[in-house]
């Protein structure tokens, strides 16, 4: 009975190990931009994210709001290799808040 348990534990360890190479890093912490200006927010992710990256805006005391789903707006969300960029032009006061990106790596693995 010990052998099947070892196999299950080993498979669990191997699947955990394969997900360890998934990453997503937002490089910008704080940006100040004048009204009417343009701001770009960048993130770098592992290659298996591809275009499976979504952007969210969260304002104080509110839940995050989905802005772009899987780079559905190519005029605002760009991808070049592992580099992802969100661009907001004609910045208004309503655009202030915390911006997050979430990447989907497959097999129900997400990073934020």
Automatic annotation (TrEMBL):
Residues 4-112 form the Ig-like domain. Keywords: Signal. Gene3D superfamilies: Immunoglobulins. Pfam families: V-set (PF07686). InterPro entries: Ig-like_dom, Ig-like_dom_sf, Ig-like_fold, Ig_sub, Ig_V-set, IgV_Light_Chain. The keyword Membrane does not apply. Residues 1-20 form the signal peptide. The keyword Signal applies. SUPFAM superfamilies: Immunoglobulin (SSF48726). This is Ig-like domain-containing protein.
